[in-house]
């Protein structure tokens, strides 16, 4: 009995355990610390951790830090925080850079076996002589260097005797292979740069395709799961394991990567958004990063349920998932948990002219109409309240059931009020309504004397707490434009809208990351960056309605 639904990788694991090919399941999540994690990474995280969990296995968090120029400890810390927040505990915490000595020794072994050589061709020349799908590549003039010459040149590379790009180490496989990845791939390059973990110890660094299988083998990883772009690399992955004579044999399996509509999902582009200040950081609530989703108000449960629903497949069909599917899961998660309260955006003052001055009464309000266990609260009501500007029209169209001169509506949790008059400012904008209330119509009193068609929400003016509401739309409007390098110029100008308003008095206690449903508006999260002791800021997580069904 296992906890996650069946999928092709899981079936492979079951088979491997049955035949004894594998005795313990070990997986890894191997991010490069060159940016923050995004929702696509969440898919990989869930798959790796849950696959191991299902078979009482282990999962390592391994930083694939083989490119010193782009990597930083800020990213290492952020990645650890995000994986833990998603609810996963890694068994081992490793850095590929901790294996540099061993990886170097395996490269030396390849040289000794005549399976690697130092090449003086530069990057352009290597690309030009690699051939195409229909044309074989050409051997490098340096391909036949002796083992001894290669050994001493590689040692000199390590010592720092050469400049960046002057030499590389290449695997010696087959320049005519139908798989271009096997045409003598570069396995080491010279990079004179400070490394976040190893400092200035190294000036040569292994290439990802060479280092990754070795890292997996060193950790005893049984199933190395990656996205489909790496399928063509699998023969080289297996070649490295075999020719480097690794005692443990990991195997690579590929699944389809997650893409979301209206969402950029490459760290390179996300970094551009941050660096160009199109957003206010990696954790901007519009970002598809884990930290952005967290600040926006998504929960680990919602993200995990979303990823589970996606399943694990080798592809076929459309691979771009509707972003509204993620919204569906956060609504589901918060539906019974979030306090339902009244927030007024764009407020309009209402004076209830027949309500006694200086009187305040407390009214009862349910905390969650779908979850009675959440109980109720007391909210103040007095002569002046705020409603939304949208809930009044001087000249309403047909079927407008909210307030207009002469019309009566229900105030949620309170009384019926009727609009008698309104006040305009010098620009002709309505700034105040004069209404009367009917004491008989008190909510919960069982009043049946007459019916009204509209119910609107409100907050008591004297006690209400000012609040800022940040409303979001997707950053990216069009998925086509998302492809070009110019995507920065095609960002949605309305992706952030800031609105002022009021919330109920008892919201004074709200803390960053508390989540609420504001009647009629949707789910909101208290922003962790801009909220201060006397300034509440709410992020719209998601509106109430959805046209999306899973
Ligand atoms: P990006 O292209 O967004 O920069 P990456 O693949 O370069 O991502 P890594 O840090 O190398 O980022 O990724 C760590 C792991 O997460 C890899 O195993 C990778 O396959 C996986 N991963 C990255 N993006 C996605 C995605 N969109 N869907 C599923 N898995 C992903
Ligand atoms: Mg990468
Ligand atoms: Mg585990």
UniProtKB/TrEMBL annotation:
<feature type="short sequence motif" description="'KMSKS' region">
    <location>
        <begin position="264"/>
        <end position="268"/>
    </location>
</feature>
<dbReference type="Pfam" id="PF00749">
    <property type="entry name" value="tRNA-synt_1c"/>
</dbReference>
<keyword id="KW-0547">Nucleotide-binding</keyword>
<feature type="domain" description="tRNA synthetases class I (E and Q) anti-codon binding">
    <location>
        <begin position="455"/>
        <end position="527"/>
    </location>
</feature>
<dbReference type="InterPro" id="IPR050132">
    <property type="entry name" value="Gln/Glu-tRNA_Ligase"/>
</dbReference>
<feature type="binding site">
    <location>
        <begin position="265"/>
        <end position="267"/>
    </location>
    <ligand>
        <name>ATP</name>
    </ligand>
</feature>
<dbReference type="InterPro" id="IPR020058">
    <property type="entry name" value="Glu/Gln-tRNA-synth_Ib_cat-dom"/>
</dbReference>
<protein>
    <recommendedName>
        <fullName>Glutamine--tRNA ligase</fullName>
        <ecNumber>6.1.1.18</ecNumber>
    </recommendedName>
</protein>
<dbReference type="InterPro" id="IPR001412">
    <property type="entry name" value="aa-tRNA-synth_I_CS"/>
</dbReference>
<dbReference type="InterPro" id="IPR000924">
    <property type="entry name" value="Glu/Gln-tRNA-synth"/>
</dbReference>
<feature type="domain" description="Glutamyl/glutaminyl-tRNA synthetase class Ib catalytic">
    <location>
        <begin position="24"/>
        <end position="316"/>
    </location>
</feature>
<dbReference type="InterPro" id="IPR020056">
    <property type="entry name" value="Rbsml_bL25/Gln-tRNA_synth_N"/>
</dbReference>
<dbReference type="InterPro" id="IPR014729">
    <property type="entry name" value="Rossmann-like_a/b/a_fold"/>
</dbReference>
<keyword id="KW-0963">Cytoplasm</keyword>
<feature type="binding site">
    <location>
        <position position="208"/>
    </location>
    <ligand>
        <name>L-glutamine</name>
    </ligand>
</feature>
<feature type="binding site">
    <location>
        <begin position="257"/>
        <end position="258"/>
    </location>
    <ligand>
        <name>ATP</name>
    </ligand>
</feature>
<dbReference type="InterPro" id="IPR011035">
    <property type="entry name" value="Ribosomal_bL25/Gln-tRNA_synth"/>
</dbReference>
<keyword id="KW-0030">Aminoacyl-tRNA synthetase</keyword>
<dbReference type="GO" id="GO:0006425">
    <property type="term" value="P:glutaminyl-tRNA aminoacylation"/>
</dbReference>
<feature type="short sequence motif" description="'HIGH' region">
    <location>
        <begin position="31"/>
        <end position="41"/>
    </location>
</feature>
<dbReference type="GO" id="GO:0005524">
    <property type="term" value="F:ATP binding"/>
</dbReference>
<dbReference type="Pfam" id="PF03950">
    <property type="entry name" value="tRNA-synt_1c_C"/>
</dbReference>
<dbReference type="GO" id="GO:0006424">
    <property type="term" value="P:glutamyl-tRNA aminoacylation"/>
</dbReference>
<comment type="similarity">
    <text>Belongs to the class-I aminoacyl-tRNA synthetase family.</text>
</comment>
<keyword id="KW-0648">Protein biosynthesis</keyword>
<comment type="subunit">
    <text>Monomer.</text>
</comment>
<feature type="domain" description="Glutamyl/glutaminyl-tRNA synthetase class Ib anti-codon binding">
    <location>
        <begin position="338"/>
        <end position="438"/>
    </location>
</feature>
<keyword id="KW-0067">ATP-binding</keyword>
<keyword id="KW-0436">Ligase</keyword>
<dbReference type="GO" id="GO:0005829">
    <property type="term" value="C:cytosol"/>
</dbReference>
<dbReference type="GO" id="GO:0004819">
    <property type="term" value="F:glutamine-tRNA ligase activity"/>
</dbReference>
<dbReference type="InterPro" id="IPR020059">
    <property type="entry name" value="Glu/Gln-tRNA-synth_Ib_codon-bd"/>
</dbReference>
<feature type="binding site">
    <location>
        <position position="64"/>
    </location>
    <ligand>
        <name>L-glutamine</name>
    </ligand>
</feature>
<feature type="binding site">
    <location>
        <begin position="32"/>
        <end position="34"/>
    </location>
    <ligand>
        <name>ATP</name>
    </ligand>
</feature>
<dbReference type="InterPro" id="IPR020061">
    <property type="entry name" value="Glu_tRNA_lig_a-bdl"/>
</dbReference>
<dbReference type="InterPro" id="IPR004514">
    <property type="entry name" value="Gln-tRNA-synth"/>
</dbReference>
<dbReference type="Pfam" id="PF20974">
    <property type="entry name" value="tRNA-synt_1c_C2"/>
</dbReference>
<feature type="binding site">
    <location>
        <begin position="38"/>
        <end position="44"/>
    </location>
    <ligand>
        <name>ATP</name>
    </ligand>
</feature>
<dbReference type="InterPro" id="IPR049437">
    <property type="entry name" value="tRNA-synt_1c_C2"/>
</dbReference>
<dbReference type="InterPro" id="IPR022861">
    <property type="entry name" value="Gln_tRNA_ligase_bac"/>
</dbReference>
<feature type="binding site">
    <location>
        <position position="227"/>
    </location>
    <ligand>
        <name>ATP</name>
    </ligand>
</feature>
